[in-house]
Design a protein that fits this description.
Blueprint lengths: L2 H15 L5 E4 L1 H7 L1 H38 L5 H26 L4 H28 L3 E4 L15 H8 L2
Parallel strand pairs: 1-2
Helix pairs in contact: 2-6, 3-4, 3-5, 5-6
């Protein structure tokens, strides 16, 4: 954050506080580390990620092996066999690229699985934050991880209350 943005946030907080507003803050990293559903989703994603990574590296190793063997034997092969091997390597290279896009790309299978597992968890957390805010009469709840709090007393930390709400 630049100095002008920090000053603006600080002035906004001071002006709002002057009208008796109630502030609170949370630590989203701590909530995520303590929320069992998030840890389970993260664990599933790690397993899926390792599986996809292994598939990718296996394909890349196969291509590398094919290329090395081709380089060793290309002068002994007929022109027809060289063409066949070159086509096999080209197809495998294309398959690897397609795998990267379809499985690992920004709209790929892994990203979609990440969204499917994370969205319900994040929705629960946001619902719990909203409930704590409404029940506690808070006007604002900031996330210390996002860097939106310049100063906060510990008595305003709502992290434990949000966790308790999630565990209900």
């Amino acid at each position: 954050m630049n100095k002008a943005t920090i000053r603006l946030i600080f002035l906004l907080l001071l002006s709002v506080a002057a009208f008796g507003q109630k502030f609170g803050y949370i630590n989203s990293e701590f909530i995520l580390s303590q929320f069992e559903e998030f840890r389970e989703a993260q664990s599933k994603l790690e397993v899926e990620g390792r599986k996809l990574e292994k598939q990718y590296y296996d394909m890349a190793a196969t291509l590398d092996s094919m290329q090395q063997e081709y380089e060793r034997q290309k002068f002994l092969m007929t022109e027809s066999n060289r063409g066949i091997k070159e086509n096999e390597m080209r197809r495998l290279a294309e398959d690897i690229q397609k795998f990267q896009v379809d499985k690992l790309g920004p709209q790929g299978e892994f990203y979609q699985k990440q969204q499917a597992l994370a969205d319900p968890v994040l929705k629960k957390i946001n619902t719990a934050i909203k409930k704590v805010g409404e029940d506690g009469g808070y006007d604002f709840i900031f996330d210390t991880v996002a860097g939106n709090v310049l100063y906060a007393q510990d008595k305003f930390d709502l992290t434990d209350k949000v966790l308790k709400e999630l565990q209900k």
